[in-house]
Amino acid sequence: MNALVQSLAVVGSDLDLERFLADGFALKPQLADHLDLSLPELERRLPSSTAELAALHPGAFDPAQATAFYEQEVGTGHLLDLAAWHLGSAPYIADTLRLQQRFARGQVLDFGGGIGTHALAAAALAEVENVWFVDLNPHNRDFVAKRAETFGLGAKLRCFRDLEDPALPAQFDTVVCLDVLEHLGDPAAQLEVFEQRMGPTAIALLNWYFFKGFSGEFPFHIDDPLLVERFFSRLQSRFLEVFHPLLITTRAYRLAA
Ligand SMILES: C[S@@+](CC[C@H](N)C(=O)[O-])C[C@H]1O[C@@H](n2cnc3c(N)ncnc32)[C@H](O)[C@@H]1O
Question: For residue 63, is pLDDT > 80?
């Protein structure tokens, strides 16, 4: 860790909304350090990161290739893309953190956790015992594990490739899955997995964007009407929405009786 990153490190309990809105939890210096870039070089690369990620994608979405794409092809590209998004749309991300703050407790799963914004914020909450960050991309896991250590949250926030890992709890009290479902080969099947891993009073925070973008800027999103219909059919038959007052697309669910 370089001196700048060290000097910007705060203790985990300070990872609140104000801090996120101020600097994304010291995101720029931590990412520059992790990628071995200078801060000006990182600033230069952030604006083009979404287009660069899209350019990596082969084009048509092939559900069978989705795992390999995120695990092997994307590399560190997603770190830059997600950093640009979280910093550029900080008020929106902050609302998802407000929602998480409202519901998160006990054992929290952050599935497809990306750069770790939600996992770190959850780990800073007193109501949360452990955060289980799951992401296919090894670069994302390395970065988030390093961020957790920097904030003194290494014991509370641990990183895994997938839900099959035996170290993970059998059931979670909170499932966070934000901006991930549209990246999966079969989002309905993922809901089924969440259903099996949610305790009786657990809450899942979910959102989705089954659309490739008005200019095709998200070629990696699924939009197959059959897959989307299966997803909604499963969601509406097995989960019950829990009202929350935040005007955002992310929804809270519990298991239907
Ligand atoms: C658009 S990002 C969202 C990241 C984060 N949840 C957020 O809101 O910023 C999608 C993430 O899902 C991860 N991902 C994609 N497929 C996955 C899978 N099958 N299992 C676990 N993670 C996956 C990607 O590596 C990526 O970090």
Answer: no
Compute how many other C-beta atoms are within 10 angstroms of the C-beta atom of residue 93.
22
Lining ligand 1 with CB less than 6 A are 67, 70, 78, 82, 112-114, 134-137, 140, 178-180, 183-184
Ramachandran category for residue 211: left, alpha or beta (phi over 0 → left; psi -120 to 50 → alpha): beta
Of the candidates 241, 205, 235, 8, which has an alpha carbon nearest to the alpha carbon of residue 119?
205
Q: Is domain 10-255 given the CATH code 3.40.50.150 in the classification?
A: yes
Closest ligand 1 atom to residue 66 Cα is 16
| pLDDT confidence of residue 155 | 97
Confidence check: pLDDT of 7 > 50: no
What does the domain layout of the chain look like in residue ranges? 10-255
Q: Give per-residue pLDDT as tens, 14-34.
A: 899 999 999 999 999 999 999
Q: How far is the CA of 78 from the centre of ligand 1 (A)?
A: 9
